[in-house]
């Protein structure tokens, strides 16, 4: 593994400050966001890529804590089929780190034309998503140079946690303010467990990344990062879906990476999955899940000391670090994965 520091590693380390600045920007606007959302009944998330994984977290928060039905949009309904739907009573939340992905802008405008109220979550205050939304929630990640999204992703999650508070979720904003410090502690932790997992993944062609509930978003994003920067055939799955058949692909050559908060209703199922994978002779590695998950895994990395509703903001950080280490271990540049750019345009 080369010793050259990557831009990605630097941007991973910048996340506590980026989250702190995003909270300073957005928490004072809770009333404004709540006023816009008050007449709505459900939430439609419009996103692609890493932003789509962030939207999965937002959807779980909206449903489990704010009692709002939430769903992910299918942008082609708007952009390819041009179907008109009745979206009155809908809060359409467009997520785009650049704010310039044409498909997301077009779908957000389509939602407005169909009667939805619109919120744009973006890292660029001058972008079309910010300018055209009824309300813009601008994250404060600063410039992100490495192609794999790190600090723009975690600041999106932070914005979605603020949105959940504005939607009436009976959660503690004080806990949200503790997130930057919790991630600082994660980043200051020992590097040996991450290095050991990265070493074991060198030479592996595929992996399964799994979590459930609020942590499902982390599983999806971790798998995407491993695909983007390490060219690993990584599948992000809910452990419920994994148990319905794809678990057959987990074997001695295809390890499982399991993610979980240290508490919550899905932790016991994640531990049981780790035990089942291990009993089948497959390597199993954990991120988070406390002592229970660590005890069922071959190797494990601690997660953030945060409540379940906020854990995904921290859980992704070790997965980002693992991706960066593995990419360098494989001789790849984690900052510039082949075939990718910062803004992806689709139609």
From TrEMBL:
Q: Where are the transmembrane segments?
A: none
Cite the InterPro entries for this sequence: GlmS/AgaS_SIS, GlmS/FrlB_SIS, SIS_dom, SIS_dom_sf
Can the keyword Repeat be found in this entry's annotation?
yes
Please tell me which top-level EC class this enzyme sits in: hydrolase
Its keywords, alphabetically, are:
Hydrolase, Repeat
> Which residue numbers delimit the SIS domain?
33-173, 197-337
Q: What is its EC number?
A: 3.5.-.-
One Pfam family, short name please?
A: SIS
Q: Annotated Gene Ontology MF terms?
A: hydrolase activity
> Could you list the residue ranges forming a coiled coil in this record?
none
Q: What is this protein called?
A: SIS domain-containing protein
User: What organism does this protein naturally occur in?
Assistant: Marinactinospora rubrisoli
């Amino acid at each position: 593994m080369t010793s050259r520091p990557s831009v990605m590693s630097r941007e991973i380390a910048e996340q506590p400050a980026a989250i702190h600045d995003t909270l300073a920007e957005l928490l004072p606007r809770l009333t404004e966001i709540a006023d816009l959302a008050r007449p709505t009944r459900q939430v439609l998330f419009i996103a692609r890529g890493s932003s789509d994984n962030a939207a999965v977290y937002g959807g779980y928060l909206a449903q489990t804590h704010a009692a709002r039905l939430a769903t992910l949009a299918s942008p082609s309904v708007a952009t390819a089929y041009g179907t008109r739907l009745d979206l009155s009573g809908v809060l359409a939340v467009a997520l785009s780190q650049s704010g310039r992905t044409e498909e997301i802008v077009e779908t957000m405008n389509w939602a407005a034309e169909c009667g939805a109220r619109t919120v744009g979550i973006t890292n660029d205050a001058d972008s079309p998503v910010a300018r055209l939304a009824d309300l813009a929630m601008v994250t404060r990640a600063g410039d992100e140079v490495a192609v794999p999204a790190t600090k723009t992703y975690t600041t999106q999650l932070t914005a979605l946690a603020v949105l959940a508070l504005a939607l009436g979720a009976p959660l503690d904003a004080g806990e949200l303010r503790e997130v930057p410090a919790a991630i600082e502690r994660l980043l200051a932790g020992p590097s040996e467990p991450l290095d050991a997992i990265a070493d074991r993944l060198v030479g592996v062609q595929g992996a399964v990344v799994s979590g459930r509930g609020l942590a499902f978003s982390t599983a999806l994003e971790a798998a995407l990062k491993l695909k983007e920067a390490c060219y690993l055939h990584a599948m992000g799955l809910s452990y419920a879906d994994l148990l319905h058949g794809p678990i057959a692909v987990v074997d001695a050559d295809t390890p499982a990476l399991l993610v979980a908060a240290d508490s919550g209703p899905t932790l016991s199922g994640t531990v049981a999955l780790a035990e089942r994978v291990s009993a089948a002779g497959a390597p199993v590695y954990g991120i988070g899940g406390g002592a229970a998950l660590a005890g069922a895994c071959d190797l494990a990395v601690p997660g953030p000391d945060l409540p379940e509703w906020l854990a995904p903001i921290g859980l992704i950080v070790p997965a980002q670090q693992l991706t960066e280490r593995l990419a360098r271990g494989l001789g790849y540049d984690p900052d510039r994965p082949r075939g990718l750019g910062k803004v992806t345009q689709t139609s």
